[in-house]
Write a structure and sequence with these properties.
This protein is mainly alpha-helical. It is about 85% helix and about 0% strand.
Amino acid sequence: MRRVSPVRALDVHKANILLLSRGILILLCVLVIILECNALSLDGRRTRAIAIKKWTVMVYQCGD
């Protein structure tokens, strides 16, 4: 079994944390989209398609 240097292991750990935090952020954005679409469809002021377009932009911004 090959040993990994402590510095390399730390870099991998940091990368995993960044991926996990980015995934959580995107999931939160998707949750907001779902809740907002439900609220807008119940409210009736806007169509669901407009809400989806609006919040899709937000998801792309969260991912960056």
